[in-house]
Each structure stands twice: as C-alpha cells, then as structure tokens.
C-alpha cells in the first residue's frame, strides 16, 4: 500500500504554502540538492571527462528512462531521456510520418498544447503534409482514410479533459494511421498504459508531476514493433550506432537508442533520477484513486462556497486528469490574490484558474485551505487591487 505521508515528506514544501501548481512545475525533492551537489563534487570535479564511463553518464538516459517506463505502462529498454519536449514531439511525429508513406495528414485538436501544434505546423510545411485541427470532442469523427498520424496530448493543459487513449488509438489503427501521444499532463498524474492502449509513440516532460526541476529533460517512447524501423528526421550523434567512430554517414542505433540526439544533460538527469526514486513503491492505481478523491472534493468545495466561478473541467472524473480549471472573468487577478495568500495555482488565458493536484504530496488539507482562501477572496473582492492586475512575464 502506498504511503502518501512518506511521499509528501520527500519534498521540500515551503511553510505556509499550499502548492497546487505541480502541473506546471513540481516541487524540489528533499534529496535533490545534495544529489546534484554530490554529482558536481564527486563526479564532475574529480572524474572530469572520465565520468562518462566511471559515473555512468553515458548510459544515464536509458537508466532514467527505465524508471519512467513503469509509470507509463512501458517496458524496460523502451524509454530514453534527453532534449526538450518539443524536440521529442518533432522526432516522434517525423518518424511516424515516415512509417506511413503515401499519407500526409496530421490530425490534432484545438486543446493541444500550442507548442505541439507549432512543431506539427512547421514539420507539415517542410515536408508537404497537412495539419488538421479540430475541437477535442470532434477528434473521433475526424479520423478517416487520409490520416497518417493522430497527434494528441492525453490530458488537456487548460481543461484537464482526458482523451480515451485506447479507443482513439484503436480507431486510428483501423483507419491505417499511427498515433503520437503527449503525456506532459499524464505521466505521474494518472494511470497511463501505453502498451495496453497499443499506442505507437509517446513523449513527455519531467518537470511537472515527475518533479525533475525547471528545464528537466523530456522522454520518448517507441512501441517495440516500430523500434527498428523508426527514422526521425532529427538525427543526432548520440543516436548513431557508433557515436565515437565519428562516421560521417548516419547509421541509426538499435531500438530506442536511435531517439537520442545530443549530449545528455547530466546534472539535470541527476536531479530527475533522485525525484524518480520517490516513486519506488507507489502504486499507480492508488495514485489515480487519490487524484480522483482530491479533485472531486475540490470541485464540490468550490461550487458550494465560491460564487462567480464556473467549472471548466469535465465533471466526470473518468474524463479528467489530475487538474481542475474554473473560469472567472478576472481570473488573472484572482489567482494573484490567491498566490499572495500562499495558495499557488496558475492562470491560463483567457479566464481560467487552474489547479493541479499531485497525489504524491497534496492532501485533503490542501483542498480545504484552497477552497477557504478562494471563497474569502471572492466574497470580499480583495482580488481587485492594482498589484493583482499587473501582468508578469510568466503567467
């Protein structure tokens, strides 16, 4: 049985703060600072370049990837780390297009994270493909015989709406298409099962629910049936079969290793590996049950005590990830007032108050305090102060 009191204690959570923004940036694991310091002191400082072999830096992307694999329903040796999420989206999407010659339509939805759509639009323009974007609820009806790749984020970054990965993947396969799933708001938040859903490619970031720290590296998964055939457009030296042969011609490495691109961010991976140790012994079914309990309690509390807000997320927990959005015409100012009182969520344009519930460290006491604070801010109108309307560079 998962000990959520122990997992909460594994994180540094500042006194007086209720943190409901782990869907943007997870808090720092208590052991991360010392692990990074030790890596710099004992490995980088003392081993210098020999650390690639002696400290295992070179194999670190696969080692860390294996830790993530368990959390997303993948197998050992199927996940590799490195680069940013946008790069991994580009790799997965370009490889999927190459595997489906003769088709040139990429289908996504308007709830997808804009960066994913930017990547898809740029790739489509470059290779002569077409990007079609429909409303989230219209995706199933837009899958047809022209489709090459279905590219979706499983959990909508604003509404928390959760796509049915298994059903949409099956429909795409029946139409002769491949799937690329972005797990940015899924990995570490819900019970993902890539193998069970028979997905083709998946990518995700690690600085949200996986708590790897700002700018932590992304991951990519390729179904084993594609592992020896997938050829991404972006071919880097770490994805070569023999990187240190320095062959001018590219030969892809076996399996998932070909999805490596540049030199791995060793310091960031050290922090991430420490964060992933917190997951040892965590049951994903228990994690999902706790997530549902927290979000259900929050929705009920806000709707009972907070006039003037409207639920933006799906009401059915089965159709929702681990975040809740409420709409308010002055959402930005309301959120700044909440943050000033120690309840940290975030704002998404144009009018969404967004709250992420991370079961590893959030509990019912966080729900109660957030509801009470939001209720007081709305009742008193204390959000309507000039400093709360002033927009910062990052919202």
UniProtKB/TrEMBL annotation:
One of its GO terms (cellular component) is cytoplasm. GO terms for molecular function: kynureninase activity; pyridoxal phosphate binding. Keywords: Hydrolase, Pyridine nucleotide biosynthesis, Pyridoxal phosphate. Pyridoxal 5'-phosphate binds at residues 85-86, 113-116, 153, 182, 185, 207, 237, 263. Its cofactor is pyridoxal 5'-phosphate. Its EC number is 3.7.1.3. Transmembrane segments: none annotated. The modification N6-(pyridoxal phosphate)lysine is found at residue 208. Pathway: Amino-acid degradation; L-kynurenine degradation; L-alanine and anthranilate from L-kynurenine: step 1/1; Cofactor biosynthesis; NAD(+) biosynthesis; quinolinate from L-kynurenine: step 2/3. InterPro entries: Kynureninase, PyrdxlP-dep_Trfase, PyrdxlP-dep_Trfase_major, PyrdxlP-dep_Trfase_small. HAMAP family: Kynureninase. Homodimer. This is Kynureninase. The lineage of its organism: Bacteria, Pseudomonadati, Pseudomonadota, Alphaproteobacteria, Rhodobacterales.
């Amino acid at each position: 049985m998962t000990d959520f009191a122990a997992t909460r204690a594994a994180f540094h959570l500042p006194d007086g703060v209720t943190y409901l923004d782990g869907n943007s940036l997870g808090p720092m694991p208590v052991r991360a600072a010392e692990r990074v310091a030790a890596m710099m002191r004992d490995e980088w400082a003392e081993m210098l370049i020999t650390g690639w072999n002696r400290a295992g830096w070179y194999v670190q992307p696969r080692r860390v990837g294996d830790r993530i694999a368990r959390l997303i329903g993948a197998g050992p040796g199927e996940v590799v780390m490195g680069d940013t999420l946008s790069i991994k989206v580009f790799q997965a999407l370009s490889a999927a297009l190459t595997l489906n010659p003769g088709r040139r339509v990429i289908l996504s939805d308007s709830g997808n994270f804009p960066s994913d759509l930017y990547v898809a639009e740029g790739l489509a323009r470059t290779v002569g493909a077409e990007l079609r974007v429909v409303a989230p609820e219209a995706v199933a009806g837009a899958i047809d015989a022209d489709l090459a790749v279905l590219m979706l984020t499983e959990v909508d970054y604003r509404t928390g709406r959760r796509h049915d990965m298994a059903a949409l993947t099956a429909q795409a396969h029946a139409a002769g298409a491949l799937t690329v799933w972005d797990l940015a708001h899924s990995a570490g938040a819900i019970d993902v099962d890539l193998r069970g859903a028979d997905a083709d490619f998946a990518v995700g970031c690690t600085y949200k629910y996986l708590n790897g720290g700002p700018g932590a590296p992304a991951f990519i998964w390729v179904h084993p049936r594609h592992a020896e055939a997938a050829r991404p457009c972006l071919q880097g030296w770490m994805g070569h079969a023999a990187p240190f042969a320095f062959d001018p011609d590219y030969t892809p490495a076996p399996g998932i290793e070909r999805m490596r691109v540049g030199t791995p961010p060793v310091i960031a991976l050290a922090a991430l590996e420490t964060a992933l140790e917190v997951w040892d012994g965590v049951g994903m079914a228990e994690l999902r049950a706790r997530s549902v309990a927290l979000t259900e309690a929050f929705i009920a509390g806000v709707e009972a005590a907070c006039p003037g807000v409207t639920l933006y997320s799906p009401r059915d927990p089965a159709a929702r990830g681990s975040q809740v959005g409420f709409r308010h015409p002055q959402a930005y100012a309301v959120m700044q007032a909440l943050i000033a009182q120690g309840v940290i969520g975030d704002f998404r344009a144009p009018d969404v108050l967004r709250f992420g519930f991370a079961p590893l460290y959030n509990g019912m006491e966080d729900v109660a305090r957030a509801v009470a604070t939001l209720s007081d801010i709305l009742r008193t109108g204390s959000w309507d102060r000039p400093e709360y309307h002033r927009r910062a560079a990052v919202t």
